[in-house]
Amino acid sequence: MLNQKKFVVTPKTESSVTVTVRIEKESHDRLEELVLKSGRSRNELINKAIKFALDNLEFDDGKEE
């Protein structure tokens, strides 16, 4: 009983979600070209682009102060 090993399973935590979006054909074509050139996955490039856009976004609600 001294060397009894345990196989411990913990609940999986989701760090991502699945979404479906429609993009313009030109954007898709440019993305696919970058996928081929970079060797990175479509998913990785889309995530990087979204993160960059959100981190650098300036929202203008159209209301004047």
UniProtKB/TrEMBL annotation:
Pfam families according to UniProt: RHH_1
UniProt GO BP: regulation of DNA-templated transcription
Domain Ribbon-helix-helix protein CopG positions: 18-55
Protein name, as recorded: Ribbon-helix-helix domain-containing protein
Source organism per UniProt: Hominilimicola fabiformis
